[in-house]
Specification:
Pfam families: ABC2_membrane_6. The chain contains 12 helices and 2 strands. By secondary structure, the protein is mainly α. The protein has one domain. It is globular and about 65 Å long.
């Protein structure tokens, strides 16, 4: 079977599985509304601020930024750490090792397929939220394919580091605590609570050495018309570097973990 056919069959299988859970997918989307809550908070603060602005953002610009964050965040959702934690602790990983394919690709295909199930309701909700809040996205056509490219890179970065964290279940009773810490860093430094420029300078200086601002904040700023094509190119290069790094980190942890897994007779 050719690689193209394997990929098509794998994606079709996982899409059919995800489509069965479309109601749960919508519930997951509605549960991830922290950025929308922050939008309401910052819009209220801007309305009461002198001149109706805070750090150059008025109410409409806050609405656009946080709706963009919500949209990008929906495309970056990753749950593979919890899947691996369960599979390793319960031993359900064993039959997956008999397949002639790294289990990582099965999980990656499931995540990609879930995006196709999510995209329709997500755009409907985005249109409703934009209408209610007065958000106005950029009219620069190039910003949309560039944002999509950054989202693909950002999703891959997040998938790889969450996968690596999930593999720590080979050595711990539960690896999900690591994923929760990683989520906090992703949210805080990515701009989920406020644009990164609102943070103290020393926090911004630390954040630029992490992948998080380029995964979440930069695509959102592009959609809001507050980032340039040059900044997007710079962010894409950094994200690609993180993809390479986390690829090898995941691979190293996977190989070490399999030795331990086999040593206990699983």
């Amino acid at each position: 079977m050719s690689m193209l056919r394997k990929t098509r069959v794998l994606f079709a299988t996982r899409f059919a599985e995800m489509a069965e859970y479309r109601a749960e997918v919508i519930i997951w989307m509605l549960s991830g509304t922290i950025s929308l809550v922050m939008m309401l908070v910052w819009m209220a603060q801007a309305a009461s601020a002198p001149g109706g602005q805070i750090n150059g953002y008025d109410g409409s610009e806050f609405a656009t930024y946080f709706l963009s964050v919500w949209l990008v965040g929906q495309l970056l959702v990753v749950w593979v750490g919890w899947e691996l934690d369960f599979m390793i602790r319960q031993g359900t990983l064993s039959p997956k090792l008999l397949r002639p394919m790294d289990p990582m690709w099965v999980e990656y295909a499931a995540h990609v397929a879930e995006r196709f199930v999510r995209i329709g309701p997500m755009l409907v909700l985005l249109a409703i939220f934009a209408f209610l809040s007065g958000a106005s996205f950029t009219r620069e056509w190039w910003a949309y394919p560039v944002t999509l490219g950054l989202c693909i890179l950002g999703f891959t970065v997040r998938f790889l580091y969450e996968y690596a964290l999930g593999l720590l279940a080979f050595w711990t009773e539960s690896s999900t605590a690591f994923s929760e810490v990683a989520w906090l860093l992703y949210a805080a430094l990515g701009g989920l609570f406020a644009p990164l420029t609102f943070y103290p300078q020393w926090v911004q200086n630390i954040a630029v050495w992490t992948p998080f601002p380029y995964m979440l904040g930069l695509p959102a700023q592009l959609l809001a018309g507050k980032a340039t094509l040059a900044q997007a190119g710079h962010g894409a290069l950094i994200l690609f570097g993180w993809v390479v790094l986390f690829w090898f980190v995941r691979l190293a942890i996977w190989r070490l973990g399999l030795k331990k897994y086999g040593a206990v007779g699983a």
